[in-house]
Each structure stands twice: as C-alpha cells, then as structure tokens.
Write a structure and sequence with these properties.
Chain lengths: 381, 297, 337
C-alpha cells in the first residue's frame, strides 16, 4: 500500500515537473524585449568554444542594455547548447525559430551544423549570423539571403597563410600535417589551390586524427621528404602534440599554422614548443587598435580572462544587429535581414560591411609566438 | 631507421600501455569484490588529474601535498561510490544491468561537471615530471623524460600492490573475499571492510593512472571519456578479469598494438584495429589471452 | 465503475495522441516529438533484447547508423525511392544484428557489452573515416524528405506516419511477448542451461532477439535520415548508445511500456531543461544525468512499470502473471550478507 503511494507520488511529481516546465516556457515577458538566440557548443566533443562565444555576445548585450538599449527596447539573449553537433543544432535552431520566435539567431559556430540548418532560417525568414568559417556556405554557393558570416572565412585565412609562406618565407617545398575534420580538410583543399597560383605543390601531406597523441611517424616522413616549411592544419590539442614532437625530432623548418594554431588553447598546451611558431589568426588581443584594446579590457573586466577568437565576432555581431534594427526601424525579421545587407559598422574587427559572399569582414593577422604573446607581423583588413 | 622506429614504439607502447593496465586494475578489483562493472571507472582518472591540476597549478601547493590530497579525495570518492550508488541500487532490487546504466550516467555526469568547473579546453599538465619538451637521447632514439617517470611510478605501484596483496594480512583478506565470499565470512573476515577497501583501491589506482596519463593526454575531458575507458576494460579482459597482473600485461599488449598499428597502418584506423582485436580476443579467448583460470560471471 | 475509468483514461490517451499536432504550440514541439517517436521505436527493440532476452547491448547506435546511412546513400546516390530504401536499410540492419548475435552464444553480460561497444565504435569510426562514402564528419546532405505528391512532408505528416509505425511496433512487441517466441526469450534470460534442457534452441532465440532489435534500430535510423534531411556521425556515437540503454532502463526493462515511456521522457527531458536562465546551458546536462541516476537508483524497475502498476491498482485489476513474474527481483546472493 505504502509502495503504491510512493510510486504514485514519484510519478505525479515527475508529471508536475514536466507539465510545469512546459507551462513555464510558454510565458511571454511582459516588457517585450528583443529576443535573440545564441546557439553555441558548451558540451560535447571538439572545440568547446561556447564560453568565449557567449562571453563576447553577453558583453555586447549587457553594454547595449545598460546604455539605453535599442531605441529603448532591451535585448534578451537566450543561450542554447548545440553540443557542436549538427543534429542537436537542428533541434535548437527550430526551437529558436518557432518557439522563441527570435528576431535573429547567432550561431551555430560549427560549419557542419550551419550547412545543415541554414535553410531553416531561410524558410522562417529569420536572419542567422554565424562565426563558422567553412567556405562551403558562402553566398555564391548557397544563395541564402538570411545567412551572414561575422568573421573572415577559411578561404581568406588560408590564402593569407599561403601568401606569407610563398612571398615572405619564399618557401618552395611545403609539407603539411592535416587533421581529419572538415575544418582541416577543406583548409587543405583551399591551400592546395592557393599554392598552385604560385606554382608550388605540397611535397608531403601527412594526416592525423583528432585525439592522436603520437605523430612521430608522420613527422619522420615529413622530415625525410625534405620540406622547407611545415604547414599546420589541425585543431588546438593536435597542434600542441605536433609541435612538441617536432621539437623532439628536431625538425627545424618554420612552422606556419592555421587559425586554430593562433590561440591560447594551443600555446598553453604546447608551452615552450610553441615559441617561434607563426600562425594566421582571426583575432589578436595585443593588437594596438583602440577598438580591440577597449574590447579586451571590457571582456577581462567582466569575465576575468582574455578573450579569444571567436568572442570578438559575436561581440561585433550584436552591435551590427543593433545598428540594423535601428536602420530598419522595426523588429520585423525580414526588414532586419534587408538592413543587414546594407548596414556598415566599425567594430573590434574594423570596418564591417556585407560583401557579395555575405561575409562582413576579411580581417586576419599573421603573427609569431614569442613565448608570451603573439607578435603581429601583418594585418589584413 | 626502421629499427629505431621499432624501438621507439616499443618504449612508447609499454609505457602508455602500463597505465592502461592500471586502469584495468581498477576494473579487476571491483569485479572481484562485487561482481559488477563500473562503467565510470575511467572518471576517477579524469577527476584525480583535474584535482591535482587545481591543487598544484591553480592553488600553488607543492607536488607532494597536491598528489597525496588528490589521491585521498579520490579514495573517499570510492567509498561514496559504494554507499551512494552501489548499495542503494542493490537495496532497491537493481541488478547488474541497472548498475551498468547508473555508472554510465555517472561517467557522463562527471564529464559535464568537469566541463562546467574547468571549461572544455584541455589544460597543460604542470611540468612535475620534467618539462614536456625535454627528452633523453639514447643513441638515435629520443624518449620524452615523462615516460621514464611514468614507468617508474607504475613499477613502484605494481611492486607495492604485490607486497600488499601477497604479504600483508589485509591483502590476503582481500584475495580471500574475492575467491569465495561465503567462506571468507565463515572465516571471520570482515567482508564489509574488504568491500570498501576494494572500492577505494579501484578508484585510487585509476586515479594515479590519470595523473600519469595527463602529461600525454593533457588534463582534459579525454581522460574521462570512452576511448581510454574501453582500453582499460580491454586490459582487464585480456587478463581474464581475475588476475591483477594479467591486467597490467593486457594493458601493455594494448599499448603495443596501438603503437604498431599506427606505424604499419595509418593512424586513422588505429582505433578500429584496437576494437577489432578486442572483439577477436573476446570471442576467441574469453578466458584472457594467457588463459587464466575460469572467468567469473 | 473501475472499468469505465479504464476506458476513459485509455480513450483520453488515444485522443491526445491523435490530436497532438493541434495541441502543440510550434513546429519545434512536433519535431522533438517526432524524434521521440523514433527513439521509442529503437528503445522498444532494446527493451526486447535486454529486458526480455537478457542480452546487453551498448552498441544500438551502430545498427541505427547502418539503417540511416544505407537509406540516405540509396536515395541520394542511386535515386532509389524512399520506401524501398527504408526496407533495404532495415534488411541490412537485421543482417548486422544477426552477426552481432554470434558472440552472444559464448559471452555473457560484461563481455558481451564490450563486444557491442566495439561494434558500435567500429561503425562510428568507419562513418567518420570513410569520407568519400559517408561524407565523414562533414556530413551527408540533401537527403530527400518524404513527399506527398510534390510537396515534402511537414512535421505534422511525419508525426502521423511515425505514430502509425510506433503503434505497429508496440503491437508487435505485445504479440511477441505473449507468443511462444517471447516465452523462449524469458526462459533463456532466466536460466539458459535450463532452457536448453527444455529443448529451447537458445541460439535461434538470440538470433531472433538481436535481429529484431537491430531491425528496429535500423528502421529508426532510416526514418531519422529522412526527417532531418542530413546526416552526420554525431548521433551515432557511444554517448547515444548509452542514452538508448538509459531510455530502456528508465522506462522499464521488463515491461512493454518501457521503450515508450523511456524513449519519450529521455528525448524530451534535455529539451525541457533548456530553460531561459542565463548560464543554465552548462547545467542542463548535469541535471539530466542526475535525474536519470535518481530514477535508476530508486526505481530500477523503471517508470513504465511503476506507472502501470499504479494504474492497475487504480482500476483494481490484477496484472498478468507474466508481468508480475518479470517484476520480481532476480535474487542475487553475492552482495547480500
């Protein structure tokens, strides 16, 4: 008898919890804030950049809300975890579009997720601003009027990387170590094309897998093929493993890495092995540009640590949205999307304007790590 | 040139493999004691590594304090595991499968907790075993100095365990309980105490393995994830699930297989090959590679 | 009186299920419910395999992957019509299931679980590495949606389709449970040696159990591919396999409703926990795990079993002998002192 009541009680409590949360979600905030949804990876495998992404976005939202909002109305930032996973992103984006009825969506940050869900934004006619960098969803390929990119895409960055190698280092026999995710392999494709313009081909390309801790075999092969520069196209932990073993095996050629190499996530792990490494970066906190410094200081003050790529592009993105809403004069998402195509804004990443590929900026740096900071060698605007 | 690669891979394989063996030991101790598999076995490794990281790098305590405190905490965790998870499940009528699923959930839970507390990006393991970029040159082979430390600690630990299990009274009680619980009870052995001891030993040994693996795998969520965990299970299985030393040998075997499949076949398929070998071993020699005595069930 | 109550509750349940699209507030709700229905199909198969036949499997996502990618590849690369592609993928999954059944003849419990984990991981790693074939982590896109005439299915139409399929699956489970095949399963679960002594061919029974659960998982995967329109290896990882087992356990392993309750609840739970509280996006997974842990620790028979036990007391019916027998604790002397 008691067991019956106990079981019934448990079932009722669970039903109440479920019903309650369904009920709680339908509630509308009476003061009518402007809803924006951020989809970012907070759990899951792979690059868990959610904290940086949210850090940049939340900082912008708080700054805007505390200085008058968008013509009086405040932003409401709703954050969801998409687990760096295209399937979860599909659910989260649907929630943002149909349940929260957001006026704009920021993210997903993972390229595979963007490719899977951007048509939803197009169907719902709600703008989607992403920091994902794959070239596969440039405007000329997908023709989605509601998809915008907030930072330099991989095509631009790899071109810069190759340009530096070919023109400054004057290397003729590049070797590459490449990861196995889409980020790495599409960068390799772009790099091959970019090198061709200089009449250069890769002498040796070695593959590694995410999670590999030993690449001595690959480095041996690279060393034996006589390369004069090592092109690194991997994610951060793999980069650290590669550089440690490059030093161990005394491969002394210069190492030029892709954007995942230019972040603290790599240098912290690699320690001294990262000294001297050159990388293309999407963001450099030591940039003397006053806009960058202001952002870095504000971010540090609020969150306690320095920002890293891609925090800055979501920060800029929120301000871009504000300007677009003001330009459109309404929170109608179709009008906002129209405005986003025309709006101009100077942010942390410099002057931002929507180009033919629906990219807002091509800014990137070539820098060298000196053990403490990344010293900027050149900056492309 | 090929001989050097060979030797290098043997050294790497044995060193890392022995830590897999330690993780397998954690599995064996618990299996022998309560006939259950703890699928959150590997979480102890991750938790201890992060605890050590907190004490040493974040709070700036010295090495010994950090090490001992982390180990102590993870030992207490073993006790909590018994009284908060295992006992309630058996009391409410749950059997092996419920324990499996509960510990699976526990494993995911720890991954999420660590993610919330420390963020998702890997952290560098402090250079307590020598700078990670330092290595020792023996002829044409260069061995990271970390490997020496790892191997040294593993050998020390195995020796200590050997003495404990074979020579000390408590060790003998532990072994007796593992062999035959009812008879041990009849002999007046405090089976309650040995069960708790088994839990604590299980988590502690895996915890030490975690600290040893952290220089290679970084202080990361990888340490508590599935890939190393399965290697731990595989090591235990290779040793037939009953003999601790079989687990160590099994782990070394796995480490060697891993390294050599990277050398001869590509690294992309290394994991697939490890799994295929595991399945083959399970089907072909379920009593362990070296055919220990009857496996329990 | 009690009989009328029973009829009312059942009819209300039926009505809610049939009219759900009109109750739901948005496309998102329907979408998640569709995912839930697919998980119900898979979890029911798992309940059958693990709960009834006693064979543990931590690699169901592997069968689901085979179903999903087969259907996706057949429809995108070869232009096969969707229904035929789905049938082919179920067929392939069943064959895979028969293969995985073979180790179960010699291996029990933990050892079998290792084999199933390996199977699931091998499939996952193949998905990630065979990029030319499966698209790798880049994914496989432009999988055709099911079409009604010219226009693709909306979530509502998918809902009704999945509902019909799920209902058929549950009905099938019911028939099997009370048939002689079902009793063979329970027999080998209880005591395999004794069952063999009663002339039950345990090998054939295991083949059946694995084949059926793999087929259902494959069906779930194939429908998933056409619901989403794209595939990546992520939903077929070990994490998902363990989630599926959690669904089966939380729902209730020994009870028919296990797959339904577990699949539905554990699909909706993470979604419901996506509350609009700042910072919560970090905690929801923790709470998800804790809730599942609590259910397993305190209600190891599962919520479905508890629900039906409560309901049958409500309308004063005795539960069937088979159900009662299943809910009895398999006494295990080893840790009781």
């Amino acid at each position: 008898m008691i067991r019956f009541f106990r079981n019934a009680f448990i079932v009722l409590v669970l039903l109440a919890l479920i019903g309650g949360s369904i009920w709680a979600q339908g509630k509308i905030d009476p003061s009518k804030p402007i809803k924006i949804v951020l989809s970012a990876p907070f759990t899951g495998t792979g690059s868990i950049l959610g904290d940086y992404i949210k850090g940049g976005a939340q900082l912008a939202v708080d700054e805007i809300n505390s200085s008058g909002g968008v013509e009086g109305a405040k932003f409401q930032l709703i954050v969801y975890d998409d687990q760096a996973n295209a399937s979860t992103a599909a659910t989260v984006v649907r929630r943002a579009l149909y349940e929260d009825k957001a006026v704009a969506i920021f993210g997903p940050n993972m390229s595979a997720a963007v490719i899977g869900v951007h048509t939803l934004a197009q169907q719902a006619k709600i703008p989607m601003l992403v920091g994902a960098t794959s070239v596969s969803f440039r405007y000329d390929k997908v023709k989605n009027d509601y998809l915008f990119r907030l930072r330099a895409d991989d095509g631009v960055k790899v071109a810069q990387q190759v340009k530096y190698i070919a023109e400054v280092l004057k290397a003729k026999k590049p070797g590459a170590i490449v990861g196995s995710t889409d980020y790495c392999t599409s960068a390799l494709d772009v790099a091959k094309q970019a090198f061709e313009k200089y009449g250069i081909k890769f002498i040796d390309i070695e593959m590694m897998k995410e999670g590999d801790k030993d690449v001595t075999a690959q480095i041996t092969k690279l060393k034996n093929s006589g390369i004069d520069v090592l092109v690194g196209l991997t994610h951060e932990p793999e980069a650290a493993v590669v550089m440690k073993q490059v030093r161990q095996m005394k491969l002394t050629v210069p190492a030029v890495g892709f954007s995942a190499w230019g972040v603290p996530a790599f240098t912290d792990l690699a320690g001294d092995a990262a000294i001297g490494v050159i990388s293309v970066q999407g963001f450099n906190p030591t940039d003397p540009d006053p806009a960058v410094k202001k952002f870095v200081d504000a971010y540090k003050a609020k969150w306690g640590n320095e920002p890293s790529d891609p925090a800055q592009c979501y920060y800029d993105g929120i301000y871009l949205l504000k300007k677009a809403i003001e330009m459109a004069g309404s929170t109608d998402s179709v009008k906002i999307a129209e405005a986003l195509k025309k709006v101009e804004y100077t942010g942390v990443q410099g002057p931002m304007k929507c180009d033919d590929l629906h990219n807002y900026t091509n800014v990137c740096y070539i820098s060298q790590f000196d053990g403490k900071d990344w010293k900027i060698i050149s900056k492309l605007q | 040139m090929v001989l050097n690669d060979f030797l290098q891979n043997i050294i790497g394989g044995v060193t890392v493999g022995s830590t897999y063996g330690l993780i397998g030991l954690g599995v064996v101790f618990l299996w022998q004691s309560i006939n259950r598999i703890n699928f959150a076995n590997i979480s102890s490794a991750m938790l201890t590594a992060y605890l050590f990281y907190s004490f040493y790098t974040q709070l700036h305590f010295n090495f010994f304090f950090s090490f001992i405190t982390s180990i102590a905490i993870i030992a207490i965790y073993g006790l909590l595991l018994r009284y908060l998870v295992f006992e309630p499940i058996s009391r409410h009528g749950g059997d092996k499968l419920e324990f499996v699923v509960a510990t699976l959930m526990l494993c995911t839970l720890w991954l999420s907790v660590i993610k919330v507390l420390y963020g998702g990006l890997p952290k560098p393991f402090p250079p307590v075993f020598g700078e990670s970029t330092k290595f020792v040159q023996i002829g044409p082979i260069s061995i990271p100095s970390v490997y020496f430390w790892i191997f040294f600690v593993v050998v020390l630990l195995i020796f200590a365990l050997f003495l404990f299990l074979r020579k000390s009274i408590i060790g003998k009680m532990l072994r007796a309980t593992a062999q035959n619980r009812e008879a041990s009870l009849l002999m007046g052995i405090n089976v309650n105490m040995t069960t708790s001891l088994a839990f604590m030993l299980s988590t502690t040994i895996v915890g030490i393995a975690g600290i040893l693996l952290a220089p290679i795998y970084f202080v990361s969520l990888e340490l508590g994830g599935g890939s190393i965990g399965v290697k731990g299970f595989a090591s235990a299985v290779m040793g037939g699930l009953i003999d601790p030393f079989g687990a160590i040998l099994g782990g070394i075997a796995i480490g060697l297989v891993e390294n050599f499949s990277t050398l001869f076949i590509s690294s992309a398929y290394k994991d697939i090959i490890s799994f295929i070998i595991l399945v083959v071993v399970l089907i072909w020699k379920p009593r362990g590679i070296f055919n220990w005595t009857a496996k329990g069930d | 009186m009690r009989q009328i109550l029973k009829k009312i509750i059942y009819s209300a349940f039926l009505a809610i299920m049939l009219l759900l699209p009109f109750f739901s507030r948005s496309d998102y709700d329907l979408f998640v419910t569709n995912k839930a229905l697919l998980n119900i199909i898979l979890a029911s198969g798992l309940v059958f395999l693990t709960g009834f036949a006693g064979q543990i499997s931590l690699g169901q996502a592997g069968f689901s992957a085979i179903g999903a990618y087969t259907s996706a590849l057949l429809t995108t690369r070869l232009g096969v019509p969707i229904p035929i592609a789905i049938i082919c993928s179920v067929f392939l999954s069943v064959i895979a299931g028969l293969f995985v059944a073979i180790p179960s003849f010699r291996l029990k419990a933990f050892f079998l679980s290792l084999v199933t984990i390996s199977f699931g991981q091998i499939i996952y790693l193949l998905l990630v590495n065979l990029t030319d074939f499966t698209g790798g982590s880049r994914g496989l896109f432009n999988i055709p949606f099911m079409k009604l005439g010219k226009s693709p299915f909306t979530n509502t139409l998918y809902y009704y389709l999945f509902l019909i399929i799920t209902a058929l699956v549950v009905l099938l489970m019911n028939r099997i449970k009370y048939s002689y095949i079902g009793r063979q399963m329970f027999a080998i679960n209880d005591d395999e040696v004794a069952a063999e002594a009663c002339a039950i061919n345990s090998k054939r029974a295991k083949f059946f159990a694995f084949g059926l659960s793999a087929g259902l998982a494959g069906l779930s995967g194939a429908l998933y591919a056409h619901l989403f329109g794209f595939l990546t290896p992520d939903p077929f990882s070990f994490f998902e396999s363990s989630n599926f087992v959690a669904m089966a356990v939380v729902g209730g392993l020994r009870h028919l409703s296990g797959g339904v309750v577990g699949g539905f609840l554990l699909t909706w739970l993470p979604e419901l926990l996506r509350l609009n509280i700042s910072g919560f996006e970090n905690y929801y997974l923790i709470i998800n795990c804790v809730i599942v842990l609590l259910v397993i620790v305190f209600l190891p028979y599962g919520l479905g079993a508890a629900l039906f036990k409560a309901l049958s007391r409500l309308w004063g019916e005795k539960q069937s002998a088979l159900t009662l027998r299943n809910l009895k604790n398999k006494s295990n002397n080893i840790e009781r002192e």
